[in-house]
Input
Amino acid sequence: MKVILKEDIPKLGTMGETVKVAPGYGRNYLIPQGKAVLATSKNLKELEHQKRLILRKAELVRTDAESFAEKFRGLTITLARKVVDEDKIYGSVSVADISQALEEQGVEIERKMVKLDEPIKSLGEFQVLVQVHADVTAELTVRVVKEE
Output
């Protein structure tokens, strides 16, 4: 019996995939639980239509993310910090500091979008990644200077 999966099922397949299962498993478990539908020509056409809609929506979200990422490209943030030694700063510059500085410049983002491996603990210029979308990232320059 061939069925179209409506959700991911471990060791069987992923959502939207057409798989062959034992007739009793499909008839008694998958279909009544709403985890699959019978693979008829009507259901296959509906699946293809749903896939096209999802892909179109995903492409729109991606283009929106690209245009949002353009705000970060070439953007430089300057943060002033107290200095302990020659080039070591007192404390560190974290993701929260960077996202707050971006909001002050009129770019509102979530903290989790800023990808910083470890807090910045010295003076200088640093390249920081901003992950706007799963496929879209932008680089941001963070300049840490001595507070006067």
Summary: Strands lie at 2-5, 18-20, 36-38, 76-81, 88-93, 114-115, 120-122, 124-131, 137-146. Helices lie at 23-30, 41-69, 95-104.
